[in-house]
Write a structure and sequence with these properties.
Number of domains: 1
Largest sheet: 9 strands, mixed
CATH class: Alpha Beta
Bound molecules: adenosine-5'-triphosphate, magnesium ion
Shape: globular
Strand order of the largest sheet: 5-4-6-7-3-8-9-10-11
Distance between the termini: 44 Å
Radius of gyration: 17 Å
Low-confidence stretches: none
Number of helices: 9
CATH architecture: 3-Layer(aba) Sandwich
């Protein structure tokens, strides 16, 4: 059995260079950042770039309703409806409050059938579509279902294990209260962590991105300028002109 790590190129301009080639197949990556930092855009682009070269993908949206996701992403030129019709993309919408509320109630009783249903549904979709790239946005919506840290850690382990076992690359977004918020359980459990910063410099905010960890790999250890533009995300390898 080969133990060589297979890297999946993200296709996001400049990102693969700072990752050392891409994200490893079978890994769960946390993309963490504050509000509006660009988590959803980056994670969605990762899935869309895969679809555009024929790799099936899944978007799990826990906050933004499906229609909002379709409209927002159309602004970047990404036609998610078309990708769905071509059976390259599946959107699982868990944004309705009542879905999460019912899971939350049952989650108090040790996971509960609704939560298992959600994980099983995701697992079935990965198997039936052959999805390689996946996004869960945000992972907090999952973590918040648990009332104690032990249950949360155990269920996150279960979810991450299912994703890793299915040879996907999963980008799970994580909401942080501030750019330099303390590291979280989700980040410790994940195989890789990327943080996006949206710092106020003078009267403006500047986005930047840092690879915090990629277990067993030797990634770049700087913070790089990161931009969201009309065509999506872009990472700039040169840090010279930026003062973080
Ligand atoms: N076409 C565009 N050109 C430039 N910037 C854009 C464009 N569209 C969106 N943005 C920027 O992207 C930001 C939203 O990014 P995104 O939704 O990915 O952030 P997020 O980290 O997921 O936020 P949240 O925590 O609210 O979910 C907007 O606030 C805006 O600054
Ligand atoms: Mg978001």
């Amino acid at each position: 059995m080969s133990t060589k790590i297979e890297l999946i190129k993200t296709g996001i301009e400049g990102l693969d260079a700072i990752l050392g080639g891409g994200f490893p197949l079978g890994w769960v990556i946390v993309v963490a950042g504050g509000p509006g930092s660009g988590k959803t855009t980056l994670a969605t682009e990762f899935v869309v770039q895969g679809c555009l070269k024929g790799e099936p993908g899944i978007l799990v949206t826990m906050n933004e309703p499906r229609n909002h996701v379709l409209t927002t992403m159309k602004n970047f030129g990404w036609d998610l409806l078309f990708l769905e019709r071509e059976e390259l993309l599946t959107i699982l919408d868990y944004s309705a409050t009542n879905v999460l509320y019912s899971i939350h109630k049952q989650g108090m009783k040790d996971g509960g059938p609704s939560l298992n249903f959600m994980i099983d549904q995701l697992q079935d979709k990965i198997d039936s579509t052959g999805a390689i790239r996946l996004m869960i946005d945000p992972l907090n919506a999952f973590s918040f279902l648990f009332h104690d840290k032990f249950s949360m850690r155990r269920e996150l382990h279960k979810l991450f294990g299912m994703l890793a076992g299915r040879k996907t690359v999963s980008l799970t977004t994580l909401e942080l209260g501030s750019s330099d918020a303390p590291f979280t359980v989700e980040e410790f459990l994940a195989y890789g962590v990327v943080r996006i910063y949206n710092k106020k410099i003078g009267r403006h905010r500047e986005r930047s991105i840092e690879v915090i960890k990629l277990r067993g790999l030797n990634q770049e250890r700087s913070t790089y300028p990161f931009e969201i533009g009309a065509n999506g995300c872009r990472v700039y390898e040169s840090t010279e002109t930026f003062d973080f």
